[in-house]
Amino acid sequence: MKKIILAVAIIIISIITYNLVIQIMDAVKSGERLSQAAEKVYKLEAKNRELKKKLAQIQSEGFIEKEARNKLGLSKIGETIVVIPQERLKQVMGVSQSAQIKLPNWLGWWKVFF
After folding, report:
1. What residues does each domain of the chain span?
2. Coil, strand or helix: which one is 94?
3. d(CA 56, CA 62)
4. DSSP output for 10-62
């Protein structure tokens, strides 16, 4: 009779220990998931701040004026837009055709170091 009670007690203690270990492992995994979620939230908040900063910059009057001038070719009242052809610009700047010869990458590095 004592052996049966001892065997049942050992089985019950084993089951309780097993369940306790499983719960501890789940708690540790939950903590890891919480840490990962907190890190993700922090990164998203940083990205959100960066995007808000960029939005404020884009909505500024200076940026809008710059884009209107450069991309749309617009000007303020009283200003005149002058378009210079690339060929004429190169001629005035003194850029010759020989300056546009591109060396192979390895040869360029060779000339830098030797």
Report:
1. 2-81
2. coil
3. 11
4. HHHHHHHHHHHHHHHHHHHHHHHHHHHHHHHHHHHHHHHHHHHHHHHHHTSHH
Q: Is residue 50 within 8 Å of 44, Cβ to Cβ?
A: no
Q: pTM for the full model?
A: 0.46
Residue 14 C-beta-side C-alpha neighbours within 13 Å: 6
| CA 86-82-93 angle, 5° bins | 40
pLDDT tens digits for 68-104?
888 887 888 888 877 788 888 877 777 555 555 677 8
51 with 43: CB under 8 angstroms? no
| Side chain identity, residue 105 | N
